[in-house]
Amino acid sequence: MTTTDRPAGWRARIRTSRVGTLAVLAVTTVLVMGAAYLVDRPDPDADGVTAVELTGAASGPPPAVGKPAQDFTATTVDGQPVSLSEHKGKPIWLTFGASWCAPCRAEAPDIQAAYDQAKANGVVVIAVYLSEDAKDVRDYAIRLGLDFLHVADPETRIASAYRVMGIPTHYFINRAGELHSIKVGVLNRARMDAALAEISK
After folding, report:
1. pLDDT greater than 60 at residue 40
2. Which of 138, 171, 174, 200 is within CB 3.0–4.6 Å of 121 for a Cys-Cys bond?
3. At a CB cut-off of 8 Å and minimum separation 6, what does 76 contact?
4. Which domain holds residue 9?
5. Which ranges carry the Thioredoxin domain (predicted)?
6. Both 105 and 185 in a single domain?
7. Per-residue pLDDT tens over the stretch 69-122
8. Cα separation, 79 vs 151, whole angstroms
């Protein structure tokens, strides 16, 4: 049978098949893009997340809201030992970032301002800097006028324990030492104040 001998409906069937294929591809594309959006922006009010690659080995259970925050011991860039357990009974804001992370630099002044307002309630801020040495972090903190606790995490040991996938990431820990909330991405001042108020109760 030649092309001209084929039934008249064959062209319509091909067109219908092509339209169906295009429709499936379009729906698939929308779903994939939607999934990527949700992964990249886990907090609907967050913005500016920088992906990170962890080199340290994950230890302990992954962080979970309502569960005790995993303790760690480290040394601040000023040479002082620091751990979560020594601050139990106080609200703790554990924030992960880096001086090379533009979104982290952008929110640093607001972190300092929020800390200045909340420290009268006993709030402790511990900033952990991924893949950086103590000197670089200390110089950065001095340059920006940041006076809370700063910890360099050059091998991402602490970040790996907390399963940090992007920075900035914020862990708010209540007075009982339990993880109250996890927020990924840049926070505006209002959201910082609200989170600190919750863990200061």
Report:
1. no
2. 200
3. 82, 149, 150, 151
4. 3-40
5. 63-197
6. yes
7. 999 999 999 999 999 999 999 999 999 999 999 999 999 999 999 999 999 999
8. 9
pLDDT tier, 48 (very low <50, low <70, confident <90, very high otherwise): confident
Q: Do residues 35 and 28 make contact, with C-beta atoms less than 8 angstroms apart? A: no
Q: In the chain, how many domains are there?
A: 2
135-185 residue pLDDT tens: 999 999 999 999 999 999 999 999 999 999 999 999 999 999 999 999 999
Q: Does residue 45 lie in a domain region?
A: no
The answer on 59 and 33 residing in a single domain is no
CB-based contact 147:112 (threshold 8 Å): yes
Whether residue 127 contacts residue 148, with contact meaning beta carbons closer than 8 Å, is answered with yes
Judgement on whether residues 146 and 167 belong to the same structural domain of the protein = yes
120 and 78 co-located in one domain: yes
Alpha-carbon gap, residue 49 to 42, rounded angstroms? 10
User: What CATH number is attached to the domain comprising 173?
Assistant: 3.40.30.10
For residues 90 and 155, membership in a common domain is answered with yes
Give, in degrees to the nearest 5, the angle at Cα 58 between 112 and 42.
Answer: 55
Say whether the peptide bond before residue 168 is cis (omega within 30 degrees of 0).
yes
